[in-house]
Amino acid sequence: AFQWSFCQKTFSQKNTYQNHVRSHGKEGDDPYPCTICGKTFAVPARLTRHFRTHTGEKPYQCEFCKKAFSVKENLSVHRRIHTKERPYKCDVCERAFEHSGKLHRHMRIHTGERPHKCQVCSKTFIQSGQLVIHMRTHTGEKPYVCKACGKGFTCSKQLKVHTRTHTGEKPYSCDICGKSFGYNHVLKLHQVAHYGEKVYKCTICSETFTSKKTMEVHIKSHRGY
Predict the structure, then answer these.
(1) What CATH class is the domain 114-163?
(2) Contact by Cβ (8 Å): 125, 134
């Protein structure tokens, strides 16, 4: 039998044992092992950060909302929600984001890339999270439940919008007359009275369009996409 000394797992075959060792890192290469799972690290700082996944420790706290993080870099990214710092800018439409991952996903709007495909109906999506939500239309799962009326929803955004029917919240305001609405699509319908049917505006040249899709195609033309 072959036993891995760090996690005490035993294997009957040598190749299975070797594959398991590789999952931790090559034996002897990284001198700092986790005493809980046996995973090894090249430097103590990485081991310390990893160890928090076992202990649940989150020593880095946001001074604005008190949310805590186990990794300092994650706190730095989170702070931008409060400071409105957006260092990653799209070179097509100039929209800016707080971290590079959001910019990368946003660029798929311009390139047309939709790498996440539903294995049931073949519909494709820009983000993996969108596919997860879509799959619930096939499974019938509705994990987000309204505390006021018990109605279920496939995603948290749907629940948030629905909750406004109970609270009366109206977060969407017309920039011309100041009238507020509970739903963005109702605001768009209202703005037709001010702008005519063209309520979608290009962020580069201010040309207006009747649909969001037409506007996005137009924006691509500015940078040759």
Answers:
(1) alpha beta
(2) yes
Nearest to 155 by CA among 181, 180, 125: 125
Compute CA distances 163 → 102, 103, 142, 189, whole Å.
27, 30, 15, 21
pLDDT value, residue 21: 64
Q: What is the pLDDT of residue 204?
A: 75
Distance (Å, whole) CA 207 – CA 220: 13
Q: Is the pLDDT of residue 97 over 60?
A: yes
Q: Exposed, middle or buried, 13 (CB in 10 Å: 0-12/13-18/19+)?
A: exposed
Q: CATH: 3.30.160.60, 1.10.10.10, 3.40.640.10, 3.40.50.300. Which one for 60-111?
A: 3.30.160.60
Task: Name the amino acid, one letter, at 97.
Answer: F
Instruction: State mean pLDDT over 157-185.
Output: 92
